[in-house]
Amino acid sequence: MMSEKDERASRAGAAGGTGTPGNRRKRRRRGGRGRGGRGRQEHNAARRSSEESGASSTGSTGGSGSQRPASGASPQGAKAESNKASNKSHEAKGSEKNEAKQPGQRRRRRRQGAQGGAKGGRGGRRGNRGGRRTARSGQRGGRRGNPRRSAEASHFETRRETSAGGLVVSGLAESVRPDGSVDLSRLYVALIGRLDRRGRLLWSMPKGHVEPGEDHRSTAEREVWEETGISGEVFQELGVIDYWFVSEGVRIHKTVHHHLLRYVDGYLNDEDPEVTEVAWIPVHQLIEHLAYADERKLARVAHDVLPGLARAEKQEGRRTPR
Question: Which of 6, 286, 291, 313 could form a disulfide with 202 if both were Cys (CB 3.0 to 4.6 A apart)?
Answer without folding.
Answer: 291
